[in-house]
Structure formats: C-alpha cells, structure tokens
Design goal:
The complex is a heterodimer of chains A (120) and B (170). Chain A is an alpha+beta fold and 120 residues long. Chain A has helices spanning 9-45, 48-63, 68-82, and strands at residues 85-95, 98-108, 113-119. The radius of gyration of chain A is 30 Å and the shape is rod-shaped. Chain A starts with 8 loop residues before the first helix and ends with a strand. Chain B has helices spanning 7-30, 36-57, 68-74, 78-90; strands spanning 100-109, 115-122, 133-141, 159-169. The longest helix of chain B has 24 residues, at 7-30. Classes of the chains: A alpha+beta (120), B alpha+beta (170).
Chain lengths: 120, 170
C-alpha cells in the first residue's frame, strides 16, 4: 500500500452522522430531565392552597364584623410563616338596595401575586 | 474523481446507521430514567393530600356547627387531632393503611406582636432527615386554648392561628 486509500469515505462520513445523531438524542434526553424538574417545582411552589385558605378565612372574618386584630393576626402569620405579604380591606357598598362588603384581597409571596375583589 | 466502486459499502453504511439508530431508540424508549422531577411528583401528592385533610377537618359536618379542627385547637386536644388527622391521611379504599407520618405545630401572635411557633402533636418524632412537605391552614379560635399543654403566652382574645403540618412517608 504505497498510496493513500481513499475508498470508504462514505462509511467514515456515515459514522460521523450517526455519532452526531446519538449526541443530539442525548441532548434531548438531558433537556427532558430539566423540564420535568422545573414543571414539578413550579406546581409545588405555586401557592394555590395558601390563597384558597386565605380566601376562606378572610370571608369568614369579614362577615363576622371585620375585626382589625384578626387582620393583624393573618398578616403577621402569613408574613412570618408563609413568606407572603397579605392585605385585605372591606368597604360597605350598596348595590340594588342591599349592603355588601366590597372586599379586596392582596397576596404576594415574591413569586406569585394575587388580587381579588369580591362582594360579600 | 468520483467513481462508483464503493456503492455496496455506502449502502452498508446507511443500513448500519439505521440499525444503530433503531437500537438506540429502542433502548432509550424501554428504560425509564428516574429524574429529580419524578421525586417531586410524590411530594405534590403529599401536599395535595395534606391540604385536603386539613380542608375536610376545617369543614363542619352540619351548617352552623363548629368544625373539628377549630375544636381541637380551642381545647388543645392533641389526642383527637392525631387520631383524626392520622386516619384521614392514611386510610385507603381497600387493603392496609398507608404509612404517612406527620408533625403538627401551631403559630400564633403573641402580645408583643411577634409570631411564635409551638409544637402541637406528631405521629412520630421527626429526625430531621425526612423528605417532608409542609401544609398550613389558618384557623380562628375564640380565645386562649383551654386544654392541658397550652403555651402560656397565648393571648386570651379571639384570634387567628396557623396550623402547620409536616408530612412525610415513613
């Protein structure tokens, strides 16, 4: 073999293509891991239950006379234990002859902000 | 110079590429990789379960009645709380009970405005190495709890306290 044998170049090239394909597949699998983790973490971190709990408690407190002490309790507890800034206010408003408490609830834990206005 | 001497080799190369790709596809498809994200799925389950249990206990059985959660906290009744929470958490439709454990604590605002967290009851002493999730529930109680073991620095006025429960699988 004195001269350079350049047969089989296609085989070499196919080898490269296969290698690149496998590398690409590995990248896709790698991304899937990351996506699964961030999705699950997103669901875990989302304060759905905290907001529902706050709603039900605030509705009860407002309908029972909207005590300022209870509001301070709720705000202090949510801040200290759930890392959430919480506030709410209730203003009486007459709609069609009936007096309602126009209640606005604010919830913000740094990631999720939630505001609602409801007539109680 | 282009010639067609190695056509068979080329076809063999393409065939080999397909065989390798098919094999990799099959292998990647049949093995399931346990990712960090998958471990959070069980955490999500625990969180939903815990919040549901607290919601059930915070709901009165009849309109106008006091719900069980408020009664247990108002009277600092740790035994009944442990029994009801434990059974709601671990009961299954059929077969043996689940093996979930929990540790409950109560946070309340003291007279000086600071928030204090006090242990309520736990089904098992936590070691600190549990993969636990935390669920919370706000509860309005009419005054200082009356039962034995009530922390002394509770204010004796109507107040909102926060029940916090750590839940983990044993």
């Amino acid at each position: 073999m004195e001269r350079l044998d350049d047969e089989g170049q296609w085989i070499v090239m196919m080898g490269f293509i296969v290698a690149v394909s496998i590398f690409f597949l590995a990248l896709v699998i790698n991304q899937a891991t990351l996506v699964g983790q961030t999705t699950a973490e997103g669901v875990l971190e989302f304060p759905k239950s905290e907001i529902r709990d706050l709603q039900s408690e605030v509705y009860g407190v407002v309908e029972a006379g909207n005590s300022a002490t209870l509001r301070e309790d709720i705000r202090a507890l949510e801040l200290a234990r759930n890392n959430a800034l919480v506030n709410y206010s209730a203003v009486p408003e007459i709609k069609s002859g009936t007096t309602y408490n126009k209640t606005t609830i604010h919830f913000n834990n740094g990631v999720t902000a939630y505001d609602e206005t409801v007539y109680l | 110079m282009v010639d067609d001497d190695a056509q068979l080799y080329t076809m063999e190369g393409i065939a080999a590429a397909f065989v390798i790709l098919a094999t990799v596809y099959l292998v990647a498809g049949t093995t399931s990789i346990y990712t960090p994200g998958d471990s959070h799925i069980t955490d999500m389950q625990l969180e939903v379960l815990g919040n549901d249990v607290l919601l059930v206990m915070d709901t009165p059985t009849e309109e106008g009645e006091e719900n069980n959660l408020t009664r247990y906290l108002r009277t600092w009744n740790t035994t009944d709380f442990r029994n009801e929470f434990g059974s709601l958490l671990n009961d299954r439709t059929a077969g043996t009970d689940d093996t979930l454990q929990f540790a409950a604590s109560v946070s309340y605002r003291k007279a000086d405005g600071t928030v204090k967290n006090e242990n309520f009851i736990s089904s098992e002493r936590p070691t600190g190495y549990e993969q636990a999730v935390r669920v919370t529930r706000l509860i309005t109680i009419p005054g200082k709890p009356t039962g034995v073991g009530t922390p002394v620095d509770f204010r004796n006025v109507p107040q909102v306290v926060m029940l916090e429960v750590l839940i983990w699988r044993d």
